Amino acid sequence: MSVITSNFQAIAWHNNTLSLLDQRVLPHQHQVLTYSTAADVADAIRSMVVRGAPAIGIAAAYGYALDALAGRDLADAYRVLAESRPTAVNLFWALDRMTQAGTDAHQLVACAKAIHAEDIEANLRMGQFGASLLADNSQIYTHCNTGALATGGHGTALGIIRSGYQDGKVTHVYAGETRPWLQGARLTSWELMQDNIPVSLVCDGAAAQLFRQGNIHWLIVGADRIAANGDVANKIGTYSLAVLAKYHGIKVMVAAPSTTFDLTIRDGQQIPIEQRDGQEVTQLNGQAIAPEGCHAINPAFDVTPASLIDAIVTEHGIISPVNETTIAHNLLNTSA
Ligand code: MRU
């Protein structure tokens, strides 16, 4: 299986220390921060040094291992990491897997490394499955950042775009800027440009006009939590894009590893949606863009109903149509 290698590492483990590429200052600064406690890793997750559902899970696993190495209380490590961000279920999945690995520090480091390596492998598999759905000369619209920065490597939705480009099927990518954190403008365009994949950045509000022109074939996005019925929580704005895509006859693909599914909840209504500080909306880079004292709401995610999604791609294959039965079948198909 081939991969277009990224020339950066969002998450790295060397000499029992965790290094994170600070995603708050990309693409103009390349700053690597090092961590030695679970509490500091939790802060890094909360403050968006590291973001993206699979990457959050991997970072949390290493954070838990850091406290094990230092002989700190692992119940405290679990609690502080679990409280960092509420929506991406990969965080809780990774922490639960770490607790199941016991208390031996070396085994916990090995478990965190395995979680990291398995995520890359899952992305490469998703890349192949997802690319198989694309016709020649496909133009793709994507939202937020789902690439090597948001995962162990390669990416989920962006991994499919990378694989599709490598297969000669993707001719152009449109990246929505993704207010308020601008993951599309700052991170997705940067990742694609490094791989020489043709990309145009667009304001979020330009999507409808672009979709109406008829040049986009697929909307491909990632996910932070997928309910048993296929409802998908992802970056705020995904739901509007899926509605727009349906209206304009554009297909919708969601790419997510099995670690993003939460079969304990029936539908998307029960997915906890993170509400972030309104200042992220009223300010840009610390600079006020709204009147002093202006109130803002800032939900970080929304829920796209399964009925708007044509296919969900996991490391086990393609789920289409999307419903409780096809999801259960895909996730049980672990030999794939
Ligand atoms: O707030 P973020 O940047 O962590 O949100 C990220 C997303 O919503 C991604 O689309 C999702 O985590 C999938 S990343 C592979």
Helical proportion, percent range: 25-40%
The second-level CATH architecture of the largest domain is 3-Layer(aba) Sandwich
Ligand species? 5-S-methyl-1-O-phosphono-5-thio-D-ribulose
Overall geometry: globular
- The domain tally reads 2
Portion of residues in beta strands equals 15-25%
Q: Rg, please? A: 19 Å
Describe the biggest sheet? 7 strands, mixed
Measured distance between first and last alpha carbons: 14 Å
Output the CATH homologous superfamily of the largest domain.
Answer: Translation initiation factor eif-2b, domain 2
CATH topology of the largest domain: the name is Rossmann fold
The level 1 CATH classification of the largest domain is Alpha Beta
Please mark out the parts with pLDDT under 50 across 5 or more consecutive residues, or reply none: none
Number of strands: 16
Helices and strands, in order, run as EEEHHHHHEHEHEHEEEHEEHEEEEEH
Q: Report the mean per-residue pLDDT as an integer.
A: 96
What is the number of helical segments per DSSP (H or I, 4+ residues)?
11
What structural class is derived from the secondary structure elements? alpha/beta
